[in-house]
TrEMBL record:
Keywords: Glycolysis, Lyase
Claim: Lyase is one of the keywords in the record: yes
Swiss-Prot/TrEMBL catalytic activity: beta-D-fructose 1,6-bisphosphate = D-glyceraldehyde 3-phosphate + dihydroxyacetone phosphate
PANTHER family: FRUCTOSE-BISPHOSPHATE ALDOLASE
Name of the molecule in the record: Probable fructose-bisphosphate aldolase class 1
GO function term, MF aspect, one: fructose-bisphosphate aldolase activity
Classification via Gene3D superfamilies: Aldolase class I
Enzyme Commission number(s) from the entry: 4.1.2.13
Length: 337
């Protein structure tokens, strides 16, 4: 393990005013996205869509890295340049999603466990040769009647730490993503309690499995009300609850926290990040690792053929979130656009 390489890469991933584009949708997930705009889910269309995103002029000013799906890592842009090289030439770090998705947790079928550890050591060698310098593994924690159980939280935390250890062994920075879903009817207080339990378990496992905290990036949910909760917390309450939870459970040795958007609206995801950065100073850099909150507008504008409109929408959201990552966003910028 080359500690210096891991530390330098992790710090670059959370550089001020830049964040991570999560473009790692599986073939099944991107089919849902394409269906919403009437585009057929084929390999050429997936390649063309990602080409549109990655060739957006200027997006690299606000984007430190891109998480790729395995298929995309080995594809080339429309001009023939391998996608990892295209990104690296722009100063954007290529990354790779390495988990194999979720399955029902044995003994607690209403909860989920993430799979993909088998053969991961060998796959990481292949991914590194293709240009990946960081990886991502997502664990899913569901709030519901009697859940999450400690069993689910600790089993997923253990898998996250095993994944992280294998990544660091290969000099690949692990993004550790424990996502508490926001799909239920729970209050923000319940989300805060569950997020705290989850982060406590995750960092306990990371320590046990000898993870270099300076050589990783955390990708957590923000502390929000469940989508079906009749009373939705306002933006300041979300920012305060999220920071309170992170300060309790995330060691200062972690260089940065790159939030997932988790189904928030584009503007809410940006506003929450901006508010938290305005509440500093903080022990870690706060930035974004958004999928839908960076891509939804671009996907709709692209529509399968309008490349320039797609690029314009992508650049706007990248810029808004880049400003939020520096605590410099203003709602008036959205209205002006």
């Amino acid at each position: 393990m080359n500690e210096q390489v891991l530390i330098q890469t992790a710090q670059a991933m959370v550089a001020e005013g830049r964040g991570i584009l999560a473009a790692d949708e599986s073939t099944g997930t991107i089919e849902k996205r394409f269906r919403s705009i009437g585009v057929e889910n084929t390999e050429p269309n997936r390649r063309a869509y990602r080409d549109m995103l990655f060739t957006t002029p200027g997006f690299e000013q606000y984007t430190s890295g891109v998480i790729l799906f395995e298929e995309t890592l080995f594809q080339s842009a429309l001009d023939g340049t391998p996608f990892p090289k295209l990104l690296a030439d722009k100063g954007v770090i290529p990354g790779i999603k390495v988990d194999k998705g979720t399955k029902p947790l044995a003994g607690s079928p209403n909860e989920l466990i993430t799979e993909g550890l088998d053969g991961l050591r060998e796959r990481l060698v292949k991914y590194k040769e293709a240009g990946a310098r960081f990886a991502k593994w997502r664990a899913v924690i569901t709030i519901g009647d009697g859940i999450p159980t400690d069993y689910c939280i600790h089993t997923n935390a253990h898998a996250l730490a095993r994944y992280a250890a294998l990544c660091q062994e290969a000099d690949i920075v692990p993004i550790v993503e424990p996502e508490v879903l926001m799909d239920a009817d729970n209050t923000i207080e319940v989300c805060e309690a569950v997020t705290g339990r989850t982060l406590e378990a995750v960092f306990d496992e990371l320590r046990r499995q000898r993870i270099l905290l300076e050589g990783m990036v955390l990708k957590p949910n923000m502390v929000v009300s469940g989508k079906k909760c009749p009373v939705q917390a306002d933006r300041r309450t979300v920012a305060e609850a999220t920071l309170r939870t992170l300060k309790r459970y995330v060691p200062a040795a972690v260089p940065g926290i790159a939030f997932l958007s988790g189904g928030q609206s584009d503007e809410d995801a940006t506003a929450h990040l901006d508010l938290m950065n305005k509440m500093g100073p903080l022990p870690w850099r706060l930035t974004f690792s958004y999928g839908r909150a960076l891509q939804a507008a671009a996907l709709k504008a692209w529509g399968g053929h309008n490349v320039e409109a797609g690029r314009k929408a992508h650049l706007h959201r990248a810029r808004m979130n880049g400003l939020a990552a520096a605590g410099k966003w203003d709602p008036a910028l959205e209205k002006a656009a």
